Amino acid sequence: MKRLLLLCPPLVLLTQCETAPPWDKKSLAQGNLPIMEPVAVTAPEVKIPVADASGVYTTPSGLRYRVLRSGASETKSPSTFDSVIVHYQGTLLDGTVFDSSYERGSPATFGVSQVIPGWTEALRLMKPGDKWMLHIPAHLAYGSRGMGSKIPPNSDLIFQVELLNVIKGF
User: Fold this and answer.
1) Would you list the DSSP string of 105-153?
2) Dihedrals φ, ψ of 114, to 5°?
3) Lowest mean pLDDT among 1-5, 38-42, 52-56, 107-111
4) Nearest-10 Cα torsion for 154, 156, 160, 163
5) What is residue 47's DSSP assignment?
6) Which of 1, 82, 108, 130 is deepest in the core (most CB within 10 A)?
7) pLDDT, tens digit (0-9, with 9 covering 90-100), for 107-153
8) What's the CA gap between 61 and 99, in Å, rounded?
9) H or E stretch including 56?
């Protein structure tokens, strides 16, 4: 009975409408389409990060980065459908290294959308040849779950990332 009472108020509101919409079934069947006025649509304003006095950029999500080296400006940043070839080193705030392609002696290949959100955001801003230092807050990393025994829950992470190449997706 309670379920019926919860459904009744919206029905009452719908049945008390005073005017029918201009696109009722009969009008549409007769080919009378409603006239729609054009609406100006503008793209949302993109906030481009500005570096602070120490050269650190902060994005609206909280990702912080410092450009250590810039690649060619005429190259394109990867999209979420692309893969990237990178060299990187990840550390905790205390400097403990938890992963490093440099130590393995071989760059890594990742799908841009197959990594933690902070990496995805940074990679989409980078260009081949760029080398950045990233400070990824916990909510853009592994959050409250952490990762294995090497990354405790709620850990901010520091990465040095060198974007070597972009492999175009589709």
Assistant:
1) TS-EEEEGGGS-HHHHHHHHH--TT-EEEEEE-GGGTTGGG-BTTTB-T
2) -105, 20
3) 1-5
4) 60
5) -
6) 130
7) 999 999 999 999 999 999 999 999 999 999 999 999 999 999 999 99
8) 24
9) strand 56-58
Residue 27's pLDDT is 58
Instruction: Please give the backbone phi and psi of residue 83, each rounded to the nearest 5 degrees, phi first.
Output: -115, 160
Q: How many C-beta atoms lie closer than 10 Å to residue 145's C-beta?
A: 9
- 3-state SS class at 16: coil
CB atoms within 10 A of CB 111: 16
Q: Could you give the residue numbers annotated as active site?
A: 88, 98-99, 116, 142, 159
CA separation for the pair 63, 81 (Å, rounded) = 21
Out of 3-17, 20-34, 148-162, least confident range: 3-17
